[in-house]
Amino acid sequence: MNEILEQLLNRKSIRNFTGESVKEEDLKLIFEAAQRAPTSVNGQQVSIVYTKDKEKLKLISELCAGQEHIKNCEVFVMFVIDYNRTAYALETINQKQMIQESAEGIIVGSVDAGIMLSTLQTAARSLGYGTTAIGAVRLSVEKFIEILELPKNTYPLVGSTIGVPTKEALQAPLKPRIPFDSFVFEDKYDDKKAKDGVEAYETILSDFRKANGMNYKTSYKEEMARFYTKSYTRDIKNNFEKQGFIFKDNK
């Protein structure tokens, strides 16, 4: 097995850091790798805003539901959907941008940001660093728009920590995934396998947590109920509209 596959197959979120700095040359390489991620129509509609400032990291931690590992990381990276750049490109040739007025624009920007996030995290791990994706930035969108001074036609979508992982974090067991045959389907979706996989995963995850002293954790079904039985980021539509994304799709 080659090194890239081995790294991907052993990927895990890292939430415990040593406090050692991320080297400047490494950080630049990580960002350069992220910039090479695929982007729809070469639009490059994602920008990165990052900080190493400890006071800002503390504030970001508070805005993201008090996640301690954000405060303790060395670098926090925000992935920003950025149609400000493309709007300017069109203005200079007397054209008006419309993509931000469609749900497609949000999908395009979100897909690009997600690919870039994964690329950045893979690059960081290859250099010995650990990361965790932070979706909780969307709990405080207006604050992040203010802090990062984001213009219209931009949106702070997702974040990532970067830091030097502790030995214990690296040695932590990999959390199991749903059964492989309930995840990958050939030719057509298999609803029965998908649902059978959920039932099997209840036992798989429960056994994993018992074996690793995590009995306090909820089951997969209970965890999904905690998040998906409510709209826990209720202001997203309003926040998008304030930033110029106005959803004019035909109904």
Number of helices: 11
Which CATH C-level class of the largest domain is it? Alpha Beta
CATH architecture name of the largest domain: 3-Layer(aba) Sandwich
Low-confidence blocks of residues:
none
Strand order of the largest sheet: 1-2-4-3
Note the beta-strand portion.
Answer: 5-15%
Report mean pLDDT, rounded to a whole number.
96
The count of domains is 2
C-alpha-based Rg, rounded: 20 Å
Question: What's the CATH topology label of the largest domain?
Answer: NADH Oxidase
Helix content: 40-55%
**CATH homologous superfamily label of the largest domain:** NADH Oxidase
Give an overview of the whole structure.
It is a single chain. The chain has 251 residues and is of the alpha+beta class. The chain folds into 2 domains: 3-172, NADH Oxidase (3-Layer(aba) Sandwich), CATH 3.40.109; 174-229, no CATH class. It has 11 helices and 4 strands. A 4-stranded antiparallel β-sheet has the order 1-2-4-3, with helices on both faces. The termini are far apart. The model has no long low-confidence stretch (mean pLDDT 96). Keywords: Flavoprotein, FMN, NADP, Oxidoreductase. Belongs to the flavin oxidoreductase frp family.
